[in-house]
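Good morning N.,

You mentioned wanting to compare the apo and holo forms, so I went ahead and generated the holo version with adenosine-3'-5'-diphosphate. This is what I fed in:
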Amino acid sequence: MNSQVSVLGYWEDEEALNQECKTLLPSLPKENGWADTQLYQYQGFWYTARSLQGVLTCQKHFQANPDDLFIITTPKAGTTWLKALAFTIVNRNQYSSFNHPLLTSNPHELVPYLEFNLFINNQIPDLTSFSSPRLFSSHLCYKSLPNSIKQLDCKLVYLCRDPRDTFISLWHFTNKLRAKTLGNLSLDEEFEKFCRGVCVNGPIWDHILGYWNESLESPDRVLFLKYEEMKMQPSVQLRKLAKFLGCPFSEEEEKEGMVEEILKLCSFDHLKNLNVNKNGKTKFGVEHTAYFRRGEVGDWVNHLTPEMMKQFEQIMEDKFHGSGLTF
Ligand code: A3P
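and this is what came out, ligand included:
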């Protein structure tokens, strides 16, 4: 890989895109992205060209099953954690903590993204090896989800995180993906873009509100979780998640300490220190270590200036006012 090009840039060769995507791109609003890529606005949200191809392909070809389960987040909301937890809950009768797939696979391999993994190559993937209920993930906003997911009332678990922590986490993550020779991104510049909604899958406020409103309207179909609440009350949130996914913990499991066992298996410290996550890479060349940084609430206070904090507060007040959603 060219050392001047980031991991993202390497995968963003626009020449390699399919014709549909190539034809669409010139008609879309365009901005410089965070890494050395362009972002395009499609259906109100920002994507790299390559992930847009994945979005278009899965919108056209993904056919949901009624019992499919979806993990949905904005990037850096805690997707890795939620994937690990949901996979473990749903498959808990198949594995013990000795032969568990999380010991040898990164959570992103176990619960693939529709648009970033399965459909990114402009091909219809063979999903026959997925056992039921199939577990998928996505960073798509609600209105851009493939139609069959909505038509079949599939269950969606949405995890949101305080946008200030999401921003800082995204800034660190993107720095890790950039070519070392390019140095770190300017926090000021990325802050300005983030506030305008220009970041992968942004505007984050609209993304969050889309699922928040759906969860209020259809709580049986959309479970809305917060990273901060999962950190504060992990066992309460885990029980809620298991119940929503259709496999609540039995009395016997509770007595055996299953909740604590799952939380331990999927904990930040445990996952971060597994060999597969210390040394492995995704198919796209992202080092697994990049998904595990601090895993804490409130790290934004260590990065944002008082002016940035004020601006963030104002935007969050404006955007979430009247929605009932607070951070
Ligand atoms: P920080 O950068 O604040 O540390 P995503 O999985 O959506 O990419 O989000 C990554 C964020 O979730 C990172 O946040 C990462 O450290 C944190 N994270 C990863 N695994 C976690 C876990 N098991 N428990 C809590 N947080 C976790």
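The first strand starts at residue 30 and ends at 32.

Happy to go through it together on a call whenever suits you.

Best,
F.
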